[in-house]
Design goal:
single chain, 612 residues, MetI-like fold, 8-stranded mixed beta sheet, 5-stranded antiparallel beta sheet
Length: 612
C-alpha cells in the first residue's frame, strides 16, 4: 500500500516528461531495455505512462469511495437520527437499491451524470452507497439496542451525539474494512468504465484507458495490456489486504485519556432536587402501548404510584408483568414504536410528558439515575470507564474535561471502587461484575440524583456481591435522602431493602403494601404465592417446592375480569367477569375480590390445578 501511494504522489513528478515524450522512430516497439513494456502508437513509453497514471487512477477511486462512505453513512444511520417512521422509508429505499447489481447501478449513474471522469466518480460512488448503507444499518441497529446507548439517552445525550460518540466508534472496524476493500472494488470499476469509454477521456489517461489502448494491440505487444492490468490487480490487492491492518489500528480506543488527579476536591455540583413537595416521582394512570401482530398491545395498564424523598419502593412480579417497562416509561426510554400515556407523569414537579427540551434533558441527566440489569452491556466497550462517567458532567453541568474526570474519579471512590484513579483509565471488560455495577451506580451519582431506578441490579451476581451492591444503594439513599425504585424478581430482597412494595401482574399493580407487612399481611393471592415460592430456613424439605400454577398472561391476549383468575385457587365467576379496582387505605391497597381470604390447603390447590 505504501508503494502504491508513493507512486501516486511521485509518479507524475518523476516520469511525466518521459511518459509524454513522442518518439516516432520507436512506434509500437516491442519490450526492450529502453522500454520495458514497449511503446504505443506515438512511440511513448507504456511503463512510464502506467506509473504516471497511478495518481489519477488511485485519486479518482478514493474520491468515489469517499462518496460511497458519506452517502452510505447518511442513509445507514438515518433511522437512528430521524426516528423509526422516516427511517423505515429510507431502509426500504436502500433495500430496493441493494437488489440491483452494482455494475448496473454504475452504468445507470454514468449515463445520468455523463461521460467523463466526474460522471464516473459520481456513478461509482453512488453505486456503492446502497451496500455500504445496508451494512451500516445492520451494525447501527445492533449497537443502538445496547444498554449503554439507553444509558446515554437517559443522561439526556442527543441523537447525533449518541451516533458519533457511542455508535460509530463501536462499528468502525467493519466499516473501515468494508471501505478499504471497497476502494479496491472502486478501482476495478473505474478501470472498467474507462475501458468502456465512459470514464477518463483523452488526452488524460488512467489505467483503464491504457488497458483499452493495450487491448487493441495485444497481438502485437501483449505487455501494452498486461502492464496496466497488472497495476489494477496489484493496487486492488493492496487495498484489500490493507483493510485488516487499518481496522485494527482504528479499533484501539476512541475515548479520552483520563488524567490522574491526586487530592483534587470534587467540584461543586448544582442541586436540582429542590421541590415544594416531598414527592419525587408522581405517576397516575400510566399506560404503555406497543404495536403487536394483531393490533396495539398494552403491556402496562393504568399504573399509579408515587415515590417520596428518601423512600425505597420495590416492584416485584414475574417476567412479563410490566415491571421493567414501567421503569423505562418513567425514564423516557421506551422505543420510538411505543407510546406512553398518563394523566400525570412528573419528576420533581416537572412534566415528563412535555416535548423534549434542553431543560428536561438536564433534569433527567442530573436528577435521575438509571442502574441497568447488565452493566457489561450498559457501558460502551470501546471507551474507558472514567470518560463515560465524565460525559455526564461535561454534557449537563458544563465542566471542563479535567474537572469532569476528577469528578468521575471521586464518584468511583464514592461507590467503594479501590484505586479509583487507576480504575478510571480501564475499560469495562477489565472490571469484575460487581465493580461494573458499582461503576454504573457511580455514573448515576455524577449529578445529584433525587431518584435512582435500579432494574434488577443484582442479576448474575453472587450472593456476597449482591449484598454489597444492595448495601451501597442503601448507604447512598441514607446519606443523600435519595429515593430508590428497585425492580426485582426476588421478593425477599425487596422486602429487606424497601419501605414499600408494589406487586405487578399483567401490567397492573395488584397490591401496594408496606414491606414490613409482606410476609404476614399480604392479602392478594398472587402476592402470597410469590412469597411462598421463595424457600427459607423453615421450608419443609420433604415437600416439593411451592410453585405458581399455569403461565403468566400474554399482554396481547388479556382475558376479561381479573387477569390472575385462571391461576388463582379462590377465583369464581365474578373474578372471571369483573376486573377489581385497586382499593384500600393510604398504606395498603389491593385489587382482589377475595382479598385476605384464606387459601385452600396446598394439596387441595394441586388437585384443583390437575383436575380437567
Amino acid at each position: 500500500m505504501a508503494v502504491v501511494l508513493a507512486l501516486a504522489v511521485l509518479g507524475p513528478l518523476l516520469w511525466d516528461a518521459g511518459a509524454e515524450a513522442v518518439d516516432t522512430d520507436n512506434i509500437m516497439a516491442q519490450p526492450a531495455g529502453a522500454h520495458l513494456a514497449g511503446t504505443d502508437s506515438l512511440g511513448r513509453d507504456i511503463l512510464l505512462r502506467v506509473l504516471v497514471a497511478t495518481r489519477l487512477s488511485i485519486g479518482l477511486a478514493l474520491l468515489a469511495v469517499v462518496i460511497t462512505v458519506v452517502a452510505g453513512l447518511l442513509l445507514g444511520s438515518a433511522p437512528l437520527l430521524v426516528g423509526r417512521r422516516f427511517g423505515r422509508l429510507l431502509s426500504a429505499a436502500v433495500n430496493v437499491a441493494v437488489a440491483f447489481p452494482g455494475l448496473l447501478l454504475a452504468l445507470f449513474f454514468a449515463v445520468v451524470f455523463g461521460v467523463g471522469a466526474t460522471g464516473a466518480v459520481m456513478a461509482i460512488g453512488l453505486a456503492g452507497a446502497p451496500a455500504f448503507a445496508r451494512l451500516t444499518q445492520t451494525l447501527v441497529a445492533g449497537v443502538a439496542a445496547r444498554d449503554y446507548v439507553s444509558a446515554a439517552r437517559v443522561a439526556g445525550v442527543g441523537r447525533a451525539r449518541i451516533l458519533f460518540r457511542h455508535v460509530l466508534p463501536n462499528i468502525a472496524e467493519p466499516l473501515v474494512v468494508n471501505a478499504t476493500i471497497g476502494a479496491g472494488t472502486a478501482l476495478l470499476s473505474f478501470a472498467g468504465l474507462s475501458f468502456l469509454g465512459l470514464g477518463v477521456q483523452s488526452p488524460s489517461y488512467d489505467w483503464g484507458r491504457l488497458l483499452y489502448d493495450g487491448i487493441g494491440v495485444i497481438y502485437v505487444n501483449a505487455a501494452a495490456a498486461l502492464a496496466p492490468g497488472a497495476a489494477v490487480l496489484l493496487a486492488g490487492l493492496a487495498f484489500n489486504l490493507f483493510g485488516e491492518s487499518v481496522a485494527k489500528a482504528l479499533g484501539v480506543s476512541t475515548g479520552p485519556r483520563v488524567v490522574r488527579v491526586g487530592g483534587a476536591e470534587p467540584p461543586v455540583v448544582e442541586d436540582t432536587r429542590a421541590t415544594p413537595s416531598d414527592v419525587v416521582l408522581d405517576v397516575r394512570d400510566l399506560e404503555v402501548v406497543v404495536p403487536g401482530q394483531h393490533g396495539p398491545v398494552r403491556p402496562v395498564r393504568g399504573v399509579s404510584f408515587a415515590v417520596r424523598r428518601g423512600e425505597a419502593v420495590g416492584i416485584v412480579g414475574e417476567s412479563g408483568s410490566g415491571k421493567s417497562l414501567t421503569a423505562l416509561a418513567v425514564t423516557r426510554l421506551v422505543g420510538d414504536d411505543g407510546r406512553v400515556d398518563a394523566t400525570r407523569l412528573e419528576l420533581l414537579g416537572h412534566d415528563l410528558r412535555a416535548p423534549d427540551t434542553a431543560v428536561r434533558q438536564r433534569l433527567l441527566g442530573t436528577s435521575l439515575a438509571m442502574v441497568f440489569q447488565d452493566p457489561m452491556t450498559s457501558f460502551n466497550p470501546g471507551r474507558r470507564i472514567g470518560g463515560q462517567l465524565a460525559e455526564v458532567a461535561t454534557h449537563h453541568q458544563g465542566m471542563r474535561r479535567r474537572a469532569a474526570l476528577a469528578r468521575a474519579v471521586d464518584r468511583l471512590a464514592a461507590v467503594r471502587i479501590p484505586d479509583a484513579a487507576t480504575r478510571a483509565r480501564q475499560y469495562p471488560h477489565e472490571f469484575s461484575g460487581g465493580m461494573r455495577q458499582r461503576a454504573m451506580i457511580g455514573m448515576g451519582l455524577m449529578g445529584s440524583p433525587a431518584l435512582i431506578v435500579a432494574d434488577e441490579p443484582t442479576t448474575a451476581l453472587d450472593v456476597t456481591v449482591q449484598q454489597q451492591v444492595l448495601d451501597l444503594l442503601a448507604s447512598i439513599r441514607a446519606a443523600d435522602d435519595v429515593a430508590l425504585m428497585l425492580i426485582s424478581h426476588d421478593v425477599a430482597v425487596v422486602g429487606e431493602v424497601c419501605d414499600r412494595v408494589l406487586v405487578m401482574y399483567a401490567g397492573r399493580i395488584v397490591e401496594d403494601l408496606p414491606a414490613a407487612d409482606l410476609a404476614g399481611s399480604a392479602r392478594h393471592p398472587y402476592t402470597r404465592a410469590l412469597i411462598d415460592a421463595v424457600p427459607d430456613m423453615t421450608t419443609d424439605l420433604t415437600e416439593p417446592l411451592a410453585t405458581i400454577p399455569g403461565r403468566p398472561v400474554d399482554p396481547a391476549d388479556v382475558p376479561p375480569g381479573c387477569a390472575y383468575a385462571a391461576r388463582c385457587p379462590l377465583a369464581d365467576d365474578r373474578c372471571r367477569a369483573l376486573d377489581p379496582e385497586l382499593t384500600g387505605d393510604a398504606t395498603h391497597r389491593v385489587a382482589c375480590w377475595h382479598a385476605g381470604e384464606p387459601l385452600p390447603a396446598r394439596h387441595e390447590t394441586d388437585e384443583l390445578v390437575e383436575s380437567p
